[in-house]
Amino acid sequence: MTSSFSDPSWFLAQLKPNCAQIAKKNLNRQGFKTFLPMEEQTRQRNGKFVTAKRPLFPGYIFVAFDAAKGLWRAVNSTYGITRLVSFGKEPVAVPTDLVSQLIQRCDTSGNLLPPKLLEPGDQVVLTKAPFADFVAEVEKVAPDQRVWVLIEILGGQTRVSVPADQLRTG
């Protein structure tokens, strides 16, 4: 990775609890470019399945800025941010390729897109109820974007049809 010191780099900032949207808004207001990848997760709450968007990396947000200008101090003092992730006294940039690949896997709002190409034998995780967080194996992909997966339940394999957007690669 070759870049000049004046190019903005991506850094990882640790968030205060439940402050992801507040920190993102405050960083954007200050002129920082942010990236907060989100995914839909289904959880059981009070006996019901509830689907909500949650950060892909809970507790962290990516922030782009020029480290040579010393802007990291402004990020550290932003409401909703605990601190930039650092090793030593100065924050360490996240590899640009890693962030670029993450951005490519998300839509313009930062929502994680479903996997594009699934092949029989791939391991996937179901993201919606009632099998949320179950690991399954892709058996077959139908032309209408329905995916037949094998889930192990009670010691046996069960075949289930699931829309592709309710799967993520595991």
From TrEMBL:
Q: Which UniProt keywords apply?
A: Transcription, Transcription antitermination, Transcription regulation
- Report domain NusG-like N-terminal positions: 7-106
Q: Which Gene3D superfamilies does the UniProt entry name for this protein?
A: NusG, N-terminal domain
Concerning SUPFAM superfamilies, the annotation shows: N-utilization substance G protein NusG, N-terminal domain, Translation proteins SH3-like domain
Protein name listed in UniProt: Transcription termination/antitermination protein NusG
